[in-house]
Amino acid sequence: MGEIAVSVVVPVKDEAGNVAPLAREIAAAMANTMHEIIFVDDGSGDGTADALVALKAELPQLRVLRHGRNLGQSRGLRTGAVAARGAVIVTLDGDGQNDPADIPKLLALLAGADVGMASGVRARRRDSTSRRMASRLGNGLRNFVLGDGATDTGCGLKAVRRDVFLALPYFDHMHRFLIALVRREGWKVAFADVNHRPRLTGQSKYTNFGRLLVSIHDLLGVRWLQRRHRGKAETREL
Fold first, then answer.
1. If residue 90 lies in a helix (H) or strand (E), which one and from where to where?
2. How many CA atoms lie within 13 A of 108 on its CB side?
3. Do residues 94 and 73 lie in contact, with contact meaning Cβ atoms separated by under 8 Å?
4. Is residue 153 part of a domain?
5. In a domain, 189, yes or no
6. What pLDDT does residue 168 have?
7. What is the pLDDT at residue 44?
8. For the chain, does the N or the C end have fewer beta carbons within 10 angstroms?
């Protein structure tokens, strides 16, 4: 394998029925790009890890990392980013609802020198009415407090420069605030409409009430981070 340009990072928990089809779709979407696929098994209790390991002979670019216990989606993304060899990281959810065919569209948006991240916007949500309403309410509240201008921070499909991602302050649930955090560092965020598909197997790991409880505290924390940042500055060695 030559020099890797893109690392696709997929955090998963209890997604045994979804990981193999998703990994094959990612490989097909990235066929024309030197890439690696990193699945981070976040302490699954089913056969997720076994399904992924069995797939490594078929997909040599596949890497499987495993947390010894459940640490959450943000930690899974961080683990994958630290291990990644590519200069660009693509993230997507492990439930198969994000469409890997949209990855090249996001990668093209990173061509701009001042664009640090490209984020998908689910043009047609394939979720329940209650989840769509909760998402709309949450996005409105977050935008009111943070002013990040995003309409769909919950879309897991994103492409971000690895050095930009690793420069962000880490905390649990940070994945919900990546757009605001990237802009805090002085980078632009580009957006593109992406496909959204129904979940085929398994169950969502989140509830609307659970999201609300953690998001209020995190929202105030990110606002504090915004106020305590003095902006991007050029550094030169003399």
1. strand 88-91
2. 6
3. no
4. yes
5. yes
6. 95
7. 96
8. C
